[in-house]
Every structure is written in C-alpha cells, then in structure tokens.
Amino acid sequence: MKYISTRGNVEARGFIETVLMGLADDGGLMIPEEIPVVSAATLKEWEALSYQDLFLKIFSYYTNDEIPYEDLKDMVAKSYSSFRNPEVTPVQTITDKLHILELFHGPTFAFKDVALQFMGELYSYISKKQGEIIHILGATSGDTGAAAIQGVRGKEGIRICVLHPHLKVSKVQELQMTTVNDANVLNLAVKGNFDDCQGVIKELFGDLDFKGKHHLRAINSINFVRILAQTVYYFYAYLQVAKQQKLEKINFSIPSGNFGNVFSGYLAKKMGLPINKLIIATNENNILERFIKTGVYKSGDFLSTHSPSMDIQIASNFERYLYYFLGEDSQKVSEYMKKFQQEGQIVIDAEDLKRVQAEFSAHGVKNAECLEIIGKYKAEHDYLLDPHTACGIAAYETFGNDNEVCVSFATAHPAKFDEAIRLIDIKQQFPAEIEQLLSLPQYQTIVNNSKEEIVAQLEAFYNRA
C-alpha cells in the first residue's frame, strides 16, 4: 500500500516515509491510496483476539511489510505493557443500549496514550534503523503533550518539544507535562490558545527547509499513524459488545475537538466495521456541530470550558474527511482549503448536507449540561465521568434511541479534571500516580504567541550537545 496527500501534490510514499513526513509536504494530510475492506467473516474470527493481536491484524494491512512482523509485535507488546488494565481499552456496560469504552488506562490516564505509546516505540525503532536523531514537535490542548512526552522520554535518538496554551489546560495536564525534567524534553507554554499553538506547528512543518534541517516529526493527529492506532479500539469495542449481544450496526459517541478520533471511526467504517452513526460531541467551541447541522464550517470565538482538551476551533483532521466527501478529488480539496484560508469558511449545499447527516450527528454541550450529566451518572450508575466523557454521554442521550446500541468513549480519567468535578461537590480519590505530581517541581518556558520566539527556543534546544 502507498500513501498520498489529500491535496495531490506529493508522490506516493511508503509507510515509514509517511510516518516521518507527518504533515504532507504540500500542506495536505497523508492518507492510504486505497482503504482495505475487512469481511464480516473476518470480523467474526477477530472476536477472540486480544487487543494487541487485533492491533497487529489491522496494522498488517497498512505497513507494506516494511517492518518485520516480529519487530512490530515487540513494539506493540512494549507499548501496552504499561497499561493498568490487561484489556488495554475495556468496555463497561451501563445499560443494554449504552456501553462505555474506557480509554484512560495508559500511563497518563487519557486516550492519547493508546496511540502515542506505540508512536514512541515506532519512532525509536526508526531512529535506530536509520541512525538519525528525530525531533518530535507538537501542539497540545492538554492530553497529547503528556502522552507524547511519556511515550518518548529518555529514549535515545529522540527529542521532543510540546507547545501548550499557557494556563488553558487543567492543572493535572500541566503537571504531567512540566514535571518531566529529562534532557530530551522541552515544554513551551504559549500565551495564547490551542489554535495558536497548532498554527505555529503547521507553519513550521510547512517550512520544508526548517523541517528537513531539524528532522522534524509530528505526534499530533496530522500523522496518519495516530489515526490508524485509534481505529483499532473501534474494532475492539464493537467485537467486545458483539460477544455480549446480537448486533447489526452500532453507534459511537465521541468527544472531539480536532476530529482525529472521529476520523479514526470513519476509517473503521470504510474498512467494513458496521457503524450506523458517528455522534460527535463538542463543547461550546462547536465548529464541528455547526458544520453537521448547517453545512457551514467556520470557526467562532474561542471559549474556555470544563472540557479544555476540546477547546479547539480549527479541526485539523476535517481535511481528511473532506477528501472522501469530495469523491477523493484532491484538486477540489485544495480549492476548498484555499477558500477556507482566504475567507474563513467552507459552505456546502443542502443536498451535500444530507450526505453528511446520514453518517454523523453532533451536539455541542454547554458547561451546565456537562456538569449535570456528571452528577446524574454518578447518582444513577455510580460511574464518575470526566467532563469530556460527559460531553459524549450528553450527545448519546440527545441522539440515542431504544433500537440502537451505542459505545461512548471515556477519553480521560476524572482525576485529570478535578476542577470541574469539585463544582458539583463530588470528592474523588486520586490515583497515586496523579497524587504524587502535586508535590513535584515544574520545568517549562513561557513564551509569547510568536513564531520567531518559538523558533529561537527550538534552535537552542536542537543545538544542545
């Protein structure tokens, strides 16, 4: 299998070249030239697989045999050895119509661990094979940074710099990143919001001279490996529920800001997973909800919410969906994205909107509704939701019905967002790993929202002996 850009101006690449490219050199996003389709019979055979073995089955469609099977198997084993649950992403049954996929059992208690523990191993493997230092550069709205740092800290041949919006992540998210004092880690706290951080990252990856000089590699979901690794748990969740009850199709409710997790589900559906609807849960930064409901993709005013990991106005992975929505026409994608850059919006007509709404629903959750859902599920089911997970449940309650089964994603442990939990007088016991963060010193450099200032910090970091 080869990989191409959504904008069509990059020669087809192999798997490892695609991993290393991250953002495509033409400014687009890399996608597989063809999406493999899994039969219903194969899905049935996969029901007995462990998470790790399922991961290997799915990745084998995409790696082009560029990584020997035993090497890949070793990376997968190492990636998930630090997870606190042997199932990696266990499914909890709330009712016969609602199941929760717990994605927070990794080292940083967030769903980003599922992909980024593997990416850390993969980058380390590639660095050793190619004999070059890899500089990982990424932006985070909170969870990606901590998971990426945990995935590569101390690894030979890799340095990582993460930009996060200063004072706009939860305290635990901040501590998970900034209490790391390893020589190969740099934390930059940017005076701005996540979109500002992400904008600088895209500019730097678009500067091909700078990117090539410093061997820049991406850990954000612009990197297709992130998308593919997340696709695995859609299959796993479906297979676990299918063991319990008869399924024809299934819905998923996904807290989303950058559209990466949702696109992973869209990829799973195109591979043959019998998904009925992908329900997108946003917060008050609701660009995705507006698009699904009105056909207008346009950013609005940035708002700080109880679910800060979704405080995003420009969803990077939307372009991947746009490619398939436009019939895999890269020229049209380029025209749409150019128009978005110039005019600040994309508008589709009523007929096209019907096509979108046939596959997606979306609900923007206000802060008050988020807290209400947390309190309700604690009282009625003795299940404590974090604010992002609560948004997913609120979206499920908005669109779910008695004839459909839904899996809603628990994207983070509630201890990561105790600021919100305390607002409804719920006291929780912190895991020991989070409790100990509170007494550790922090290491971060606060910078202005300035590309020049950030580049100066990066140059100094890369030039260290």
From TrEMBL:
Assigned EC number: 4.2.3.1
Entry keywords, A to Z: Amino-acid biosynthesis, Lyase, Pyridoxal phosphate, Threonine biosynthesis
Pathway: Amino-acid biosynthesis; L-threonine biosynthesis; L-threonine from L-aspartate: step 5/5
Organism this protein belongs to: Paenibacillus baimaensis
The protein's required cofactors: pyridoxal 5'-phosphate
Segments passing through the bilayer: none
Residue stretches in coiled coil: none
PANTHER family assigned: THREONINE SYNTHASE FAMILY MEMBER, THREONINE SYNTHASE-LIKE 2
Protein name: Threonine synthase
Family note: Belongs to the threonine synthase family.
Domain Threonine synthase N-terminal: 2-80
Role this protein plays: Catalyzes the gamma-elimination of phosphate from L-phosphohomoserine and the beta-addition of water to produce L-threonine.
Superkingdom classification of source: Bacteria
Keyword set includes Ribosomal protein: no
GO MF annotation list: threonine synthase activity
Record's catalysed reaction(s): O-phospho-L-homoserine + H2O = L-threonine + phosphate
Keyword set includes Protein biosynthesis: no
Pfam family, one: THR4_C
CDD domains, per database record: Thr-synth_2
EC category name: lyase
PROSITE patterns xrefs: DEHYDRATASE_SER_THR (PS00165)
Domain Tryptophan synthase beta chain-like PALP: 101-348
